[in-house]
Amino acid sequence: MSERYGLAIGHVLHATDFEAGSTVAFAHALRLACATQSSLSILHVERTADRQPDWSRFPAVRDTLARWGLLPPHAARSDVAALGVRIGKASVTDPDPAAGVLGFLHEHPADLLVLSTHQRHGLDRWLHQTTAGRINAGSDGATLFLPVGTSGFVSEDTGEVQLRNILVPIDFEPDPEPAVEVVCDLVAALDVPECHVHLLHIGNPSDSPGVSLPGSANVQYHWRTTTGSVVSSVLHAARQVQADLIAMTTAGRNGLLDALRGSTTEQILQHAECPVLAVHEWLD
Question: Residue 208 gets which letter from DSSP?
């Protein structure tokens, strides 16, 4: 983590089960690793030890970068390193995929964790109420969730980024500034020419918290206030502004678990039509 709220990305971890939808998360993880010139670990979690991961089922890094025009056809591994990106592939065995990810994170801490989520099953493909907080606590950074069935903000075919509108719910608790800072860092790293960040307060307008907003020539801020339930208000606002990303601060290292117990984050993830970025609240 940097000294301010923003996120300094040195290691991106993409955990995959090779199921449908994982390729979208892979594209986001690879594009972010390229943008930040960081290392990317691609982790496969196998439930039983009698099976070996079939890496041929997963999109090849060099082929993807060549398709995006970042590498020539038939590039060598050294060409990937020349982009400033270090790629590693790993496999662990654990009957509980979430526990497998947690164990890997313990040995290899990551600044950004990228996962696909299967909305129709709640989060039970990767995240369970008993393990979500443990996974979230395994990283000092942030977690980017890609709901299966959504295309996200990175094109699988071209690598192009579309981050025109980002929704950030704000309140006094948890502090929204970490999410705002990380959003601005991502916009800068991905070289987004113009991005509209919509700050949503749910409640009385007079109770809206003050937020220190980073200055950026590429970011325009818009304040929105509404009333109603948090989940429905966030989802409705995301549709209204055609959000490409919802970014939320979680309350400390156990914040995602706490939110899941209260159903707020779980419901947003279950019904969101765009990626959701969960950012840790700043710890003094």
Answer: P
Q: pLDDT by residue (tens digit) across 205-259?
A: 888 888 888 888 899 999 999 999 888 999 999 999 999 999 988 764 444 444 4
Q: Is 58 exposed, middle or buried (0-12, 13-18, 19+ CB in 10 A)?
A: middle
Q: How far apart (Å, rounded) are the C-alpha atoms in residues 63 and 67?
A: 6
The candidate with the shortest Cα–Cα distance to 131, out of 164, 94, 168, is 94
What is the CATH number that goes with domain 11-147? 3.40.50.620
Question: What's phi and psi for 267, nearest 5 deg?
Answer: -70, -35
What are the Cα distances from residue 145, in Å, to 77, 157, 252? Answer: 28, 20, 18
Q: One fold for both 11-147 and 165-280?
A: yes
Q: Determine the Cα–Cα distance for residues 67 and 69; give it in Å rounded to an integer.
A: 5
**Exposed/middle/buried for 93, CB within 10 Å: 0-12, 13-18, 19+?**
middle
The first and second tokens of residue 243, run together, are: 């959000």
CATH code for 165-280? 3.40.50.620
Listed by start position, the domains of the chain span 11-147, 165-280
